């Protein structure tokens, strides 16, 4: 671990000579000084140094390579068009499916509302019928008492007749 930290410190100090080093926790960022010059040097053939001023020499472009790039760009464009057509068709299918799901959900909610309304109406009708039955049954206890009284009276008469 100490060896690894020592290497990291040596590397960071070497980088500080070539640019700016920023440390945020475990993340280390490096920004090179004179980046444009370094890029030019990396593209120059070995042993040649690019011109230091604004008049850098640009090598000639191979027409065959340019035609190849144009042909490949055409192929890429055709493939991108095909991909976009496929994405478009897929999105249309997904949209149609989404619309179908939303319509089914809407129909289900409407059916549920109608069923709930019918159930509430049926419950109120049942409650009303039960209240009517309760009112109609109010004389029953009095009739039952009269029937018991008559039965008792009949039993006494039977007892007298024996």
Structure description:
The chain is mainly α and 162 residues long. It contains four helices and two strands, in the order αββααα. A two-stranded antiparallel ribbon has the order 1-2. The longest helix has 75 residues, at 63-137. The chain is elongated and about 145 Å long. The protein starts with a helix and ends with a helix. Mean pLDDT is 82; it is low at 1-6.
Brief rundown of the structure:
The protein has 162 residues and is mainly α.
Strand proportion: 5-15%
- What radius of gyration results from the CA coordinates? 49 Å
**Uncertain runs with pLDDT below 50, 5 residues or more?**
1-6
The count of β-strands is 2
**Order of secondary-structure elements:** HEEHHH
- Rounded to the nearest angstrom, the distance between the terminal CA atoms is 121 Å
Organism: Dicaeum eximium
GO biological process, one term: lysosome localization
GO cellular component, one term: BORC complex
Pfam families: BORCS6 (PF10157)
């Amino acid at each position: 671990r100490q060896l690894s930290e020592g290497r990291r410190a040596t590397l960071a100090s070497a980088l500080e000579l070539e640019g700016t080093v920023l440390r945020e926790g475990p993340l280390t960022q490096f920004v090179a000084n004179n980046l444009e010059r370094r890029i030019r040097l990396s593209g120059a053939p070995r042993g040649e140094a690019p011109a230091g001023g604004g008049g850098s020499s640009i090598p000639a472009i191979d027409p065959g390579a340019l035609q190849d790039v144009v042909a490949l760009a055409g192929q890429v464009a055709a493939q991108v068009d095909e991909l976009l057509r496929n994405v478009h068709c897929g999105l249309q299918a997904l949209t149609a499916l989404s619309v179908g799901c939303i319509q089914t959900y809407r129909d289900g909610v409407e059916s549920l509302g109608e069923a709930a309304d019918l159930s509430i109406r049926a419950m109120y009708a049942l409650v009303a019928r039960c209240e009517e039955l309760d009112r109609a049954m109010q004389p029953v206890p009095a009739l039952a008492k009269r029937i018991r009284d008559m039965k008792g009276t009949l039993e006494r008469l039977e007892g007298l007749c024996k």
